[in-house]
Amino acid sequence: xxxxxxxxxxxxxxxxxxxxxxxxxxxxxxxxxxxxxxxxxxxxxxxxxxxxxxxxxxxxxxxxxxxxxxxxxxxxxxxxxxxxxxxxxxxxxxxxxxxxxxxxxxxxx
Length: 109
Prior knowledge:
Helix content is 50%, strand content 21%. It is α+β, with helices and mostly antiparallel strands and 109 residues long. The protein has one domain (19-108): GIY-YIG endonuclease.
């Protein structure tokens, strides 16, 4: 392996990840879904992958994807968390996700 490649791999592994709360909105309807994740950078790809496969566990989100297509859904961050221990972070994520679900009248995803 070249030193440039090793350096790139090391930088990738050491990059900072952000936990947070996100919302997925449907442009074709008033529907919205709120979720929490320990890694905001990766969650949209994971959700879009399961939606493309037709296997997402949230039936209403899957139905919106199937009915209106991928271009009708928008992914947005609601808030990012500061670095916390995983126990505190997980509890805070649940609390903030509940807040955003109420605030946006959204379903859980």
